[in-house]
Model the fold of this input.
Amino acid sequence: MSLFDMLTISGSALAAERQRAEVTSANLANAETTHTDAGGPYVRKQVVFSATSNTPFRTVFNRVGRFAQPPSGSVQLTQVVNDTTPPVRRYEPGNPDADKSGYVDYPAINPVSEMVDLMGSVRAYQLNASAVNASKQMIQESIDILKTT
Done:
């Protein structure tokens, strides 16, 4: 694995973790949303990550200019799926979204677990940013060594 493969892997992880943080933030923002355009409460979203397949892509540093395979371990967000947990029912007869029995359906979102997921996403982003910086430093030091020889 080259230093440039390390940059590609960390870069793909940075993009995936950013998207994960956006989805988690949307879940937190809609934790009390009882009515959507589709009708009913907001449905919690979850992200699905996967390793990249062997889809060709152009590498900037490829000497011969051919297509190369992505390094194993690259990650991408493949889809955002709805959580299948049923909504939480609360008795609120005065609420305009209440049914005939006086119950309101709220999203099945636990703010504590969403915050933990968001903190995990932020931490993974920070770690990958550190890996990118370490790779850049190693590349720069390699260039400096070549200059002195």
Summary: Strands lie at 45-51, 75-82, 88-91, 103-106. The radius of gyration is 22 Å.
